[in-house]
Write a structure and sequence with these properties.
Blueprint (H helix, E strand, L loop, with lengths): L2 E7 L15 H5 L7 H17 L3 E5 L7 H6 L8 H8 L10 E4 L9 E5 L6 H4 L2 H11 L6 E3 L15 E4 L8 E6 L12 H10 L7 E5 L2 H5 L9 E4 L2 E5 L6 H11 L4 E5 L6 H7 L5 E4 L5 E6 L6 H12 L4 E7 L2 H4 L9 E6 L12 H14 L12 H17 L11
Parallel strand pairs: 1-2, 4-5, 7-8, 10-11, 13-14
Antiparallel strand pairs: 1-15, 3-4, 6-7, 9-10, 12-13
Helix pairs in contact: 2-13, 13-14
Bound molecules: N~2~-(3-carboxypropanoyl)-L-arginine.
Amino acid sequence: MLTEINFDGIVGPSHNYAGLSLGNIASASHKGDASFPRAAALQGIAKMRSNMALGLAQGFLLPLPRPNHGLLRDLAVGPGTDRALLAAAWSASSMWTANAATVSPAPDTADGRCHLTPANLVTMVHRAQEWRDTQAQLRIAFADERHFAVHNAVPPSFGDEGAANHMRFCESHDAPGVEVFVYGQPGGRFPARQHEQASRAVARLHGLAPDRTVFIEQNPQAIAAGAFHNDVVAVANGRVLFTHARAFADQAAAYEAIRAAFPALEVVEVPEEAVSLEEAIRTYLFNAQLLTLPGGEMALVVPGECRESAAVWNWCEAMLASNGPIRKVLPVDVRQSMANGGGPACLRLRVVADPQTVDPRFMLDEAKAERIEAVVAEMWPETIAPDEIGDSALEKQVVEAREALLGVLALDQLLAPAR
Ligand code: SUG
């Protein structure tokens, strides 16, 4: 009963816009805006509910403990310190669970277990603090060692950003797949966050077969244009690679390398003339959830911003009319996350597993979604202005809001930070 389960990050109560991610255009351009954590979390839950309504399995991961006093202490943050460091310790960035871990489903691995390696996220200080707490959750959610193996993060200095730079091709989710790792070369105007050696280490840790594993370089021009993760310019599902024509350093060689390992590959490529790289990055067309619906057809869950772009929407309509493998395009509103550079695909971690083997506390159903919404509606701050970060009354609210959520989900064991 292996099936794809999407684990979305619930947006934490300290969600704010601090402009922390160099190379992430949305994060930089919304720096200093007031944020709306309650609306942000409700948008995320609504997305999960609409995917569940399509008949898909849905799970979630919880916000991490913020502010992170350990980080504030380690950086000796005080009254005169750069506010970006204070904001880092308050960041709700774990909502983007595509960066929580890399996941290799059981049919791909040597020992027949599903392997998960938390991403070290070392490039950005606000993200580098995530992995131990993320690992603590993964160890609970996927505690059954007959079916799962949860690793430590790859050590620094090899940056690893998890599933955002990983794609899997397969005939069906429960069949053996071909796993593709996409890394960046440093030296451009923005950081290349995924190091080739991190990708190779994850493939070894997971026991992937070399002839079913492919390593591809990201296009440096895409990184320079703001594609800080490969999932900003490409997404895969089943036999399909949905990609911008300028996603990879050598596009033709990339297709060839994937096809050599997975001959059934179907490429749906969006040319620069139809949607420029810049427009693709602005609208996050590729940061979409490419989903196989229970009836077998594929749907693309895109950010609402795609509908507002004439170029992107025209292309989507033409694609649907052409009867390709993607049969539906479904816009969703995740604007609060989008303003920090996180679209529908950033908000989810795909795990192929039997839902019966996952700790049920991390699985969503309608009743639980309502309970989570009620806590968010009651406890999450409505808005956070940038100068409120560090405020003790806000801190109390943020801490209590998370506590209330953990209480409702019977996950109080996650209250204290992992060490
Ligand atoms: O790491 N934004 C995140 C967005 C992550 C998107 N994930 C994927 N593409 N899979 C990042 O850049 C902004 C936080 C701030 O500026 O306050 C931020 O961390």
